[in-house]
Structures are given as structure tokens and as C-alpha cells.
Write a structure and sequence with these properties.
single chain; alpha/beta; 19 strands; 4 domains; Immunoglobulin-like
């Protein structure tokens, strides 16, 4: 009842004040009819507060997102299920769900009455042009009486998460040769003959079967180690994404950074579908991926990746070197100077296929002009990488990755004027 009195609206307080004033006048003037009217006016907001207070904690709420993971620019349907779990009907309900500004305005609905044990379902759509993990909820319900004298707010605690992942472009099939790492049963006999201690275990990598853990080596080195001869054949690769703020141009969903994230997502999903064991590396180092299959863990990681203040790719290059065992390295990078291009070029050796998707960031400053050419930094980076045997794919503004992805199939060396210098430096 106290909570109901605190929830009196301006109209309810006015009624209560008017009733008290009429009551005092009735006593002083001796008007019995005025006394009856004052009692009625006072009773109205009090009864409304009592009814609203009894209804306050008798509602149950559930929410469903379909789907819970969408690409940028796609709709998701939110279904709110509200149940009256009492034997009394509710009054007027004003429902408002909490959503971030990025996915749309806050949805508001009015329910006139919910019968005892009744259920109401409300649908609305959310959509975001920005990547990210967005909380949906909690739901708040404002309970009012038919006269508008009392308004109580009930806030639920349950929330759901909408995952907005980068746009995935379907790419034409391009055969990218990658190294098949690990061991098969053919190696088991020779390793077993040398004894269990001479197996030569290696460090545990994501995707390895825990039944292959070599416990004696794990205790010796203080980290999980697996038997090399029992490792299943698996194609492994690495995806490097350049997130440096100064290496990109433009703002919003059409910026070169967002295009780079979408390109990394498109390439990663295709490689994952081809059965490649992929790890994600940025200029901040190796990124943790979950256990979801089909590239979903990669998309979840890319959904929340943000631009960094790093000035170089040194940390990312070091993470690629330390990982080892990568038969394929795909780098999606922005603006590169000669030193950064040389550092990246050295990652490729005879057993590694290197594919570099280089965004021609100069075209983001003058869209749609300059699509035919590129700036000096792009030409330098292409010369260095191509001279070291990388397959270079140029991606200017306004161009779909699918239209230029076929360039990744060509293994050509740069033959321009810079090739003698860059090939020697990259060796």
C-alpha cells in the first residue's frame, strides 16, 4: 500500500488533496453531504493504489530473439511473452522494452487488460547497421488504474543478447594451397618404437582431442602437450586483421575498417566451410575463438572487434610466428609502409601460402574517384609482398571482395622497378 501511495500520479495527488480539503470544510461547515463527497474523493486514489499494488508482483516475462545472430542490416524479431499469474485481471499496462539506440527506438505497447492466468505475446523488430553485442531488455511495465490516479513501474531483470556480425559476402571458390599439419597412424609405429618419452609432443592447440594429451610432458612443461603421432590430419591457417586506427580511412559502416572486417569474415567463413582450422590474429595479438563451428566463433569475435591505437603490426606478426604450423596466412590490412610490408612478407616461406588483401585506403578519401590507381604506400606494399611470393588482392572503395577474390588464385611475383630491392629485403 505504501508503494502504491508513492506511485500516485499528479491526478491522484490532486484527488487526494481535494478530498482532504473537502473533508476539512465539511467538519467546519457541518455539511454532511460534503463529507460524503470528500470520503469518496479520498477513497478513489487509495483504492486505486491498493489494486495496483496487489497487481505489481504478479506478472511473468519471457523474451525470444529469432534469430539471435544476424548480419549488419538484417532484421531480428523479438517476441515478448507476458503472463498474468494471479487470479485477478490486470488494469491498463504500459509496456516498454529496453534496447540500445543502435538497434532502434524503444518499443512501447499498451495492453488494456490481461485476464487471470492470461498470456499476451508482443512482437517487434530490431535492426542494426553497426556490428556488436547488444543487450535487449530488461522489460519495464507501468501499471495504471482506469482513472489514471496511480502508476506503478515493474522492471524485470531478464535480458537477452543480440549478436550483430559483419556482413559475409559469398566468394567464388578459389583453391588456396595450405599445409596439412599433424600426424596420422602411419607415424605411430615409428614413434612408439622410440618409447613414449621420445614421441616429441607439441603444445596443445584449439581443436585437439583431449584424449591425445601427453600427461608426462604436460607435467614436465607446465602446459598441455599432445602426442604428435596421434594428432589427426588437419589443415591449419591464420587470418590476420589490421585494426590500427591510423591505417584506415572513413567513418561509419562504409569506412575502410568496416570493409576490412567484412572481408575477414567472408574469407574466414569460406575457409572454415572448407575444413580449415583457422585462428584469428590482429595487431593486438592472437584472439580467442569459441567452440562454435562453421565460422560462427570467428564471426562472434569479429562482431566486437574495435579499432586499436597501435602504430605497428609487430605484435600481430610475432603472434603469427609463435603459432607455427600455419600452411596458409591470409592478411587483411590497411595502409602499410615499407617496414611493415617487409615484416609481413618475411612470414611467408616455402611451405606457407600467403594471401594479402590490401585495402587501397586512398580511394576512401575520394570516393568514387581514383579507383583505377593507388597511392604510393599501396604500390610499395604490393611490391614488397609480391616480391616475397605473396598473392596480393587490391580492394578499393566501392568494390565487392567477391569481384576481386579471383586474384588470390594467381601466384605471380611483382616484376616492376622495385622488385630487385624488395625481393632481396624480403628474403
Amino acid at each position: 500500500m505504501t508503494a502504491g501511495l508513492r506511485a500516485l500520479t499528479s491526478r491522484g495527488r490532486s484527488f487526494l488533496a481535494s478530498g482532504v480539503a473537502a473533508l476539512l470544510c465539511a467538519f467546519f461547515l457541518g455539511e454532511h453531504d460534503l463529507l460524503r463527497v470528500s470520503i469518496l474523493i479520498i477513497a478513489l486514489p487509495l483504492l486505486a493504489a491498493l489494486v495496483a499494488a496487489r497487481t505489481r508482483y504478479r506478472l511473468a516475462c519471457a523474451r525470444r530473439l529469432d534469430p539471435g545472430r544476424v548480419e549488419v542490416g538484417s532484421d531480428s524479431t523479438v517476441t515478448v511473452r507476458l503472463e498474468n499469474v494471479t487470479r485477478l485481471p490486470t488494469g491498463l499496462l504500459l509496456i516498454e522494452d529496453t534496447v540500445p539506440y543502435a538497434v532502434g527506438a524503444r518499443p512501447r505497447f499498451v495492453l488494456d487488460r490481461v485476464e487471470p492466468r492470461g498470456v499476451r505475446e508482443i512482437d517487434y523488430k530490431v535492426r542494426s547497421d553497426l556490428r556488436g553485442r547488444f543487450p535487449i531488455g530488461p522489460l519495464s511495465v507501468r501499471i495504471t488504474d482506469p482513472f489514471g490516479l496511480v502508476e506503478l513501474t515493474r522492471a524485470f531483470t531478464a535480458t537477452d543478447t543480440l549478436m550483430v556480425v559483419p556482413e559475409v559476402v559469398r566468394l567464388p571458390h578459389v583453391r588456396l594451397s595450405g599445409e596439412w599439419t599433424g600426424g596420422g597412424e602411419s607415424r605411430t609405429a615409428s614413434a612408439a618404437a622410440a618409447g613414449e618419452d621420445d614421441i616429441g609432443p607439441r603444445e596443445y592447440r584449439q581443436g585437439d582431442d583431449l584424449r591425445r594429451v601427453h600427461w608426462r610432458s604436460t607435467a614436465r612443461y607446465g602446459e598441455l602437450m599432445v602426442r604428435r603421432e596421434e594428432q589427426q590430419w588437419q589443415s591449419r591457417g591464420a587470418l590476420l586483421l589490421d585494426t590500427r586506427r591510423h591505417a584506415h580511412r572513413g567513418e561509419g559502416p562504409r569506412s575502410s575498417f568496416e570493409v576490412a572486417v567484412s572481408a575477414a569474415a567472408s574469407i574466414g567463413v569460406q575457409l572454415a566451410r572448407d575444413g580449415l582450422g583457422l585462428r584469428l590474429v590482429t595487431d593486438q595479438g592472437a584472439q580467442h575463438l569459441g567452440d562454435l563451428g562453421g565460422g560462427q566463433s570467428l564471426l562472434d569475435a569479429l562482431a566486437v572487434v574495435r579499432q586499436s591505437s597501435a602504430r605497428t603490426l609487430d605484435t600481430g606478426v610475432s603472434a603469427l610466428r609463435q603459432g607455427g604450423g600455419d600452411g596458409l596466412i591470409v592478411a587483411v590490412v590497411g595502409e602499410l609502409d615499407a617496414a611493415e610490408a617487409h615484416a609481413l612478407a618475411r612470414l611467408r616461406n616455402g611451405g606457407v601460402t600467403g594471401v594479402a588483401v590490401v585495402l587501397d585506403v586512398a580511394t576512401w578519401q575520394h570516393v568514387p574517384a581514383h579507383h583505377a590507381g593507388g597511392d604510393e604506400s599501396f604500390e610499395t606494399a604490393r611490391a614488397v609482398l609480391a616480391g616475397a611470393g605473396w598473392r596480393v588482392v587490391r580492394l578499393p572503395a566501392g568494390t565487392s571482395l567477391a569481384s576481386v577474390w579471383q586474384e588470390a588464385a594467381r601466384n605471380e611475383r611483382f616484376t616492376g622497378s622495385r622488385s630487385p630491392m624488395t625481393a632481396g629485403d624480403a628474403a
